[in-house]
Every structure is written in structure tokens, then in C-alpha cells.
Amino acid sequence: MKLSTAAQMRELDRQTIEEYGLPGRVLMENAGRAVTGAVEEVLGEVGGGPVVVVAGKGNNGGDGFVAARWLHEAGRPVEVCLLPAANELSGNAAANCAMAQKIGVTVHERADAAVLAERLAGAAVIVDGVLGTGVCGEVRGAAREAIEAVTAASAPVVAIDIPSGVDADTGAILGEAVRARITVTFGLAKAGLYLYPGHERCGEIRVAPIGIPTTLLDSDDLSTNLTTETEAAEMLPVRPPDMHKGNAGRLLIIAGSVGMSGAAAMAGLAAMRAGAGLVTLAVPESLNDILEAKCTEVMTAPMPETAARSFSIEAAEALLQLAENSDAVLLGPGLSRHPETSELARRLVAEIQRPLALDADGLNAFEGRAGELSARPAPTVLTPHPGEMAQLTGSSISEIQADRPASARSLAQELALVVVLKGASTVTAAPDGEAWINPTGSQALASGGTGDVLAGMVGAFLAGGAEPLAAGAAAAYYHGRAADEAASPARRGLLASDLLVALPTVFSPA
Fold it and tell me: Which of these, 6, 9, 207, 510, has the minimum number of CB atoms within 10 Å of its CB?
């Protein structure tokens, strides 16, 4: 499902008005009608009562006046708390304010904190039309006071387009933000609605058509997407009825060191659960027996090791031969940061000719030398969490988290490979700028080993023939789905092994 930035949505509005001839006032009317429907639904839940629209001076406020007019015409008690004076409005917002006043809607102009507190105290439903998608920088002044008043009120909130105070592009909270029961967004959902921390303020997100032509909404210029169940299924190659283990994908996993055999086991078993036909788990030789016991369905390959029981550089030739006989390779889970093992990892990345997923300590081997990854001879998927991303890029974690899509895109474009930036709302980005935001999963995934499961899934999908971008985005989606299936209502206590049990149940039919 395509998502837009604030700037892209403004351009779509402009094209609709100027090139297709649909007046902006019609778009505003349609937006207000969509908000009215959501308000009526919430009123039905709470048993009716007064509606208070809190309106700023922009188009969101204009949408709020349309909603107020329709609610008034339906016999609902409704009033508008307008932050500026009515004569400060312009364009369609001014026209709809005047129309609402003419039919008898009460409008409290220059509504300050005291007026807001008084009017909102009696509200059954609040409509948030304070700020729209164009706001940037910390919210201050009257808008900040209005957001704080709405937040302090007990009534459920219907937000117009985006909860006021949420950045439409990044999901950042711009000082303070409204917490909505329902967010009615127009034309296309905005990327920030699905990125944390803003996503947590949105409640149920509904995308309302308001008349923007489908040809514009489907434009290839819109390169940010939300992964849906249908799209995730379409990302993976069809599995024909006569498929067998030999053509379901042969995956080599190079993983594990003393104390981290669990990472190797989780990755290997996840790959099997994700549909790989044959998985070979290459491990330091002293760990081989325990991995054979942990992973009954996975083949193992003991490799020369260092005195610290991590991979030795002497394993290189044998691993390269195993890679040549595989469809894809996963390198990194539990590998360790032993200098010799890191040297081995860099050599393997440079020489392996198969599609490669690089995770965990495989990524850490390139700290301060990420540019070497751009020389990879075959398709590559990186699966960093924000800390690993910071080590690769030299950016801080806070800088990466401030705009996750931009961070993932930047590294993908710089290195000409696919980046799966893990975390809440995992972002998968390609070198051409295309990005997919994942909506599944929860805080239940904050548990050791879940990243190893994701890495095993990416490896399995690559081995099965999925394109790198599809392998990353689909793995993130189904990984989150498995967590949603397996997690307790409290979203605590999920083990990585619980995902393995849930995985076969969440894949959509081919």
C-alpha cells in the first residue's frame, strides 16, 4: 500500500486541482464528510452527546468546519473552538467557517486554554483539526496549548488527517501530540502514521478517498509503501505442488561461537520454518555436537576454529566451497567479534558469489569500513538494528531513529544493496529509493534471539528465489505476524523459539 510524505500529498492536491480541475473546496467537503462518518461511529459507541471541533487556521480546520456543519445538519450538538479569529482564515477554510456559522454552528473564536478546558470538559467526542501534515519543528504557542487541552480531556478523539503534533514524514512527536481513537487520513496514508512514536498516537488509521484521481495515487514517484498481507504473499515465489527439498532453496548459514550457539540454532530453525528446503549450518567445530542436538532438521558442517572457539581464517576455503553449492548464504548470527573471525567475515563477503544476508557480527566486522560492502559481487541484504547501523554509518542512534526511512534509504543507496533496518516499524530499503514499512509485530519482540529468527527467514527467502528487497520486506512482515500470533495479551515473555512454532501458521496461501 503506497504511503506519501507531506510534500508529496501537497503535490497530489495541487495536481488534482490545477491539472484535473477538481476544486479544492470539493476535496475539503469530501474530507469533512469522511470525518463526520467516523465521529458518528464513535458517538454510537459512547451513547451520543456534544461534539467539540478544535480547529486551527489551516485546511485541517476547514475540514473540521465541514464536519461540524454536517453534524449540525444531522441534529448533533456541535461547536467549534477556533484558535485564531475567523477573519484570520483564508480560502476554503474561511468559506466553510462562514457557512457553518450561517447555519447556526457556535464558533468560539480565539479559543484560549481556559475556553478549551471549559468546552472540552463536556464533550462526548473531540475532533482534532489543530494542525495538519505541513507542520515542522516543535509545536508552540496556541497550537501547543490546544493539543495539551485535547490530551487532558477524557473524551475520545477523531483526528483529521494526522494527530496534531505528529510529524507526517517521520512519526516524531513535535513536542506534544494528540492521542486519537481514530485518525481519518485522506487520499493516501502518510508515512509518519506508521512510524513510532507517532504511530502510537494514531489509534485506528482509516484512509478516506476524497477525489484525488487513482492515476495520481498509483504514481511510481511514490516510493514508500506499507507492507500488507497481500503484498507480502506476492513478494515470495509461488511454491508449485511438485516442489521438493532440492528446489525449495539451499541455504548455507555461517554462524555461532562459544556462548552464542543459540543464535546459530535460531537462524537455522527459522530458515527451515520459513520454507528453505535444505539448510547447512556451518559452525566452529567444538560447537558441532551441540548444534546437531539443537537442530535435528538442519545439517551441520564443523569448521576450523580459533582458541576462543570462533571461526578461524582457515575455514575460508571450505566455507567458500559450501557457498558455491548453495542458493544463498546467511553470515553473522552469533559469529563473535574475534579479530580473526572478523577478518574471515570480510573475506567471505568479498568472495561469495551467491545472494547474501549479512547480520549481527557479520555487520560488525565492517565497522568503520562499510564502503567495502559496495564491492559485493552478488545481491546483498543487510539486517542491522539501530546500534549496528550506527557503527556502520558513523551516525548516532538518535539520528538514525529520527528518520528511519531516510536512514535506511541513505545506506542502501550509498552501498547499492538492500537494508532492513530492524526495530518498531522495520524499514526495508533498496538502492533505487523504494522502501517498505512493516506494520506487524510489537514490543513482544524485545527478546534475545528474535533477530536471529528474522535473519534466518531472510536467508530462506533469498535461497528460495525472492528478490533481495522482497526477501527483506516479506521476512519483516511474517516475522511480526508470528510474534502477533504467539505473544501473550500482555506482550511479555515471548521467546524466539515461540516464533518458530507460530511461523508455519502465518504465511498467506500462494
Answer: 510
